[in-house]
Amino acid sequence: MKKIALGASLVALAAAGYVLAAGGGAGSGGAARLITLASGGSAAKPGAPAVAATPAPSGRLIAAAAGKGIPDSYICVFKKGEVSPSGARGAAAEAARRGGGSLGHVYTTALQGFSISIPAQAAQVLMDKNPNIAWCEQDQEIVLIDGVSATAGNTGGTTTQPVESTPPGITAVNGGAYIGTNRAFVIDTGIDLTHPDLNVEPVNCNGGSCNFVTRETSPQDLNGHGTHVSGTIAAKAGNGIGVVGVAAGARVIAVRVLNKRGSGSNSDVIAGVDYVSRVGRAGDVANMSLGGSLSTALDTAVLNASAVVKFALAAGNETDDANNHSPGRVNGPNIYTIAAMSWNATSRTGTWASFSNYNTSIVDYIEPGVSILSTWLNGGYNTISGTSMATPHMAGILLTGAPKAGGTVTRTGTSEVYTIGTR
Description:
By secondary structure, the protein is of the alpha/beta class. It contains eight helices and 23 strands. It has helices spanning 10-16, 88-99, 120-129, 168-172, 225-234, 266-279, 296-305, 387-400, and strands at 19-20, 34-36, 60-62, 69-78, 102-107, 113-117, 133-144, 150-152, 183-188, 199-200, 210-211, 251-256, 263-265, 285-288, 290-291, 310-314, 335-344, 349-352, 365-368, 372-375, 381-384, 404-410, 417-422. Strands 9, 10, 11, 12, 14, 16, 17, 18 and 19 form a nine-stranded mixed β-sheet that branches. Strands 3, 4, 5, 6, 7, 13 and 15 form a seven-stranded mixed β-sheet that branches. Strand 5 and strand 6 (113-117) form a beta hairpin. It starts with 9 loop residues before the first helix and ends with a strand. Residues 1-21 form the signal peptide.
């Protein structure tokens, strides 16, 4: 939620249509305010800073981070107001035809744009021939935020389920019960659709679980990461088996954007975010325990989608500034970036997790993320550490309302203080 401070990336953001309010900037001694988007932008929320749109320059081709780009793959965004959501598919198809590329996803809500397979030189020609395109960004790799350590539990899907227990992290944030209708979109590797400890929305790409991984069809989790995230958010309570989630029993929706190896592309992830923006409703939450190098396209999509759905974003596990990673660096009224801590259930105190990314201008809360037991593939359970595991604690909290301050944790070796979020 904090005001954004992007430092060296301001040039790329300006090219994408981001505008910084007067009095704030990377070198001003205060955090700059991310206030608008020139293309695909959403209206300001009540209480948000005033906005003043500045058009993005046409013909801007944004390169991927070094070593992360996907060859001959681009994400293109239409100029604001040039293409309606209902006209996006037709305009995208025409642009692909004129440019000689192969059309991929079409984005209608979080962005108005499309992904396309086309050589770099042809991508520039495509923009030249289509004055309604504001900019194109090279697609790049994105990955789940790997668990720092894993201890195999009941991972084999045995017919005998473990006796129900409430993990310490759930207790730490006052979780374990939920009465409501809000849903959690898990933008990840999918979910074990038949896990007995989860209420998973059936496959239905008009509001239920859906796959966005190119050349695959099912939102079934083949990795385990998305299922683990889901259990921390909403594993059932009172069924006598497994674990209990923060918003126990809430509906979880698989938005599969990463493959069985836990990797994917920004173009696929944006398709998942666009889906959430299209079918989500006020009170719903999206969890993104994934990340990569800086991406204007992905950041724009997340910011715009947060006008509808609250987003919980993992800060990352690189022991690095969270401002160096997308989408964790994005800030907005409905966006919460989460760092990780270990939790001592006896003393009820938290300790900074050494792997966690940081930056108090970006990170909103810190949650339990060390040795987290949750659901896994084949009806099983597993223990993993990481900001991926901390973030769904916040997603569960957000399903129940606004987070409360539950104490603080100081980052080791610094004076940075992070607030523990609770229900």
